[in-house]
């Protein structure tokens, strides 16, 4: 069955990439593994901080970001329980393997002069909460075992969310997809479906009208900025 197996990276906009790198390196112990001109985005820097071999927290700095005002309750939640615009990052939780590791991480954060509270026991996990530069809402969590949907899917909330019994069954057991060996053709553009609205619609329609291999050949940039051979 073809499916995902984790988060490769979460990209966060920043007006000061050095400050974010320094915070995640010093406070959370993350290793900087990439910092380069972002592919296909003029004037943008892209930085990756390692969480594991296959997972990173990433930052994107462009010249315009610093001039965009952060407004709590609009652009940023300001806390793990706050609100922000739909599609915005409400908070991000990093994983550790055990409660002992979580307590050690709490000590590390506090040793850097950053306040943090918890660990709170949520039943499915224990979590500590703190803030990062530019009003980031951050959490570190650990779970002793996988989340049990039988215990943690609340029928009341299911009903309030407008989820039917058939929909819930599908959500809990996603349809399998097995590739046939023949690429699925690009669907016809439908503005009612999600699409990257930061790109002009006409430009995007032209892009998706191109054969996949043409897009791959024209837009891929796979040479690192520093030769290591």
Strand order of the largest sheet: 1-4-3-2
Structural class: alpha/beta
Task: Examine the secondary-structure arrangement and name the CATH architecture of the domain at 1-63.
Answer: Roll
Beta strands, count: 8
Q: Give the H and E element order.
A: EHEEEEHEEEHHHHH
Q: Characterize the biggest β-sheet.
A: 4 strands, mixed
- How would you sum up the global shape? globular
| Sequence stretches where pLDDT stays below 50 over 5 or more residues | none
* Average pLDDT reading: 94
Distance between the termini: 37 Å
Rg, Cα atoms, Å: 21 Å
Count helical runs.
Answer: 7
**What is the CATH topology descriptor of the domain at 1-63?**
2,3-Dihydroxybiphenyl 1,2-Dioxygenase, domain 1
Q: Percent of residues in beta strands?
A: 15-25%
CATH top level label of the domain at 1-63: Alpha Beta
Helix content: 25-40%
Notes on the protein architecture:
Among the domains are: 1-63, 2,3-Dihydroxybiphenyl 1,2-Dioxygenase, domain 1; 89-145, Roll (2,3-Dihydroxybiphenyl 1,2-Dioxygenase, domain 1); 147-176, no CATH class. It has helices at residues 17-26, 99-111, 149-152, 155-160, 165-172, 201-209, 212-219, and strands spanning 9-14, 31-37, 45-52, 55-61, 92-95, 117-121, 126-132, 136-142. It is globular and about 50 Å long. The model has no long low-confidence stretch (mean pLDDT 94). It is built from seven helices and eight strands; from the N terminus they run βαββββαβββααααα. With 229 residues, it is of the alpha/beta class. The chain has a four-stranded mixed sheet, covered by helices on one side. The chain has a four-stranded mixed sheet with strand order 5-8-7-6, covered by helices on one side. A hairpin with a 4-residue loop joins strand 6 (117-121) and strand 7 (126-132).
